[in-house]
């Protein structure tokens, strides 16, 4: 006669193990309230040496487009900037920080590009480099492909990734290696950045911040999965296909190198990346500051984010904001804990068959 309790325990474990990781929406930045829960940097760029001043709230550089109801973040493209001065632009960071066990999905119709322009959609722990950084979207000047990267303290590397991109630039994430290049993966799609991104009506960036690893997906507008385009309240990562970039736990223990992250949009000008002569001259002519920042303001007509929404999801709907989680990473263990409990319960009944799981 089969042991009923054993069969129940086996069934629970089988169901848990067969299921993909499902995340439920816990936060939405969209519509008229998009900018309500962000902090403005409100200072000059003293972080990456950009020729930029990040404006405070209330500026006309951030607003909701009345026609589309989408959020616009832009570089000043109307003012004449005097020599030795900097051009106004935007940097905002989410008030909430999100723990391991989160996904954030950014739906964008346009991203900034142009000579001297250095935009990014990324996340960072407040005590960087402790706690790490995840760059989901970044580019400079007139490059045609998005680059993604992690930046951490020493010891985190990309090892045996499962990803669609074969364009792996660097594998050591240590911020002290190669002038803080990080471990960089480039998206081979020319629709992932710049003019072709805009021509395709943009797309969606998905970032999974999980104990098993960090993954990034990019979907051009025509290929956005229905679970995302329908603004579903849940996301199952098994339905997203292969990520374009992946940093598995095997080379970088996520709980060791990462803590809760603030989400960040910013657009700086020139600076340590876009303004470096060897990089600037790959796609642009002239001199970054004198020919562009203080040049014709119309150079910045394409230097703006047009964002429909940012949605944040947590495993099993658990709120993963730093302010409400009891400890970093605690939520992401819930699914494993439920499996373990079922295994132990069955084992207590003499379920030696479970050892095969």
TrEMBL record:
GO terms for molecular function: hydrolase activity. Gene3D superfamilies: 2.60.120.200. Residues 1-20 form the signal peptide. One of its GO terms (biological process) is glucan catabolic process. InterPro entries: ConA-like_dom_sf, Glycosyl_Hydrlase_16. It comes from the Eukaryota. This is Glycoside hydrolase family 16 protein. It comes from Guyanagaster necrorhizus. The lineage of its organism: Eukaryota, Fungi, Dikarya, Basidiomycota, Agaricomycotina.
